[in-house]
Design goal:
Helices cover 23% and strands 36% of the residues. By secondary structure, the chain is α+β, with helices and mostly antiparallel strands. The protein has one domain: Cyclophilin, CATH 2.40.100. It has three helices and nine strands, in the order H-E-E-H-E-E-E-E-E-E-H-E. It has an eight-stranded antiparallel barrel. It is globular and about 35 Å long.
Length: 156
C-alpha cells in the first residue's frame, strides 16, 4: 500500500510541476497582424477611393495608426494643383525629389497629407497612389478649387 501512495504522490507532484511550466500563459491563436497591408482608402463626401500604398517607414507608421481607427482631417486647395491638410500625427520621412502627378498621395513635412490633382516638383515622401481615375474624376472627387473638404483615411 505504501508503494501505491508513493507512486500516486509522485504522479500528483509531476502533474503539478508540469502545469506550472506554462508560467500562467494560455495558448493564443496565430497572429494575423503580420499580414502585409498594401492599400488604404480615402473618403470625401461619401465617395471612397482606394490608394495603393508605397513601401517605406512613413507608410508603415501610418498603417499602425490606422489599425487603431480612421483618421479624419480637413484638406484645403493649395496652388491650384493639390489638397493639403494636417494629419494630426508626425510620421517618419524619407524625402526625395519627386515630380508628382494627379492621384499621388504624399507626406509633406512629416505631418501633412497632400493629394494631387495636378503636378508639382518638390522633396516629398510618397505614401501612395490613387489609380484608375482621370484627372477630371480626381478633381471632382477632391472638390478641386471648391474650398475645404473633410477627408477620412481608413484601412477598409
Amino acid at each position: 500500500m505504501k508503494k501505491f501512495f508513493a507512486v500516486l504522490f509522485i504522479a500528483v507532484v509531476m502533474c503539478l510541476a508540469l502545469a506550472g511550466c506554462n508560467n500562467g500563459r494560455t495558448e493564443q491563436p496565430p497572429n494575423n497582424n503580420n499580414e502585409e497591408i498594401t492599400e488604404m482608402y480615402l473618403t470625401i463626401n461619401e465617395n471612397k477611393v482606394k490608394v495603393t500604398l508605397a513601401e517605406n517607414s512613413a507608410v508603415d507608421a501610418l498603417v499602425e495608426i490606422l489599425k487603431n481607427g480612421d483618421i479624419v482631417y480637413t484638406a484645403d486647395d493649395y496652388g491650384g494643383f493639390e489638397k493639403v491638410g494636417a494629419l494630426g500625427h508626425t510620421l517618419p520621412t524619407s524625402n526625395s525629389q519627386i515630380t508628382t502627378e494627379a492621384g499621388d498621395v504624399i507626406l509633406y513635412s512629416g505631418n501633412q497629407i497632400v493629394i494631387f490633382y495636378g503636378s508639382n516638383s518638390w522633396s516629398y515622401t510618397r505614401l501612395g497612389k490613387i489609380e484608375g481615375y482621370s484627372v477630371s474624376d480626381l478633381r471632382d472627387f477632391l472638390a478641386a478649387g471648391q474650398g475645404s473638404v473633410q477627408v477620412t483615411i481608413s484601412l477598409n
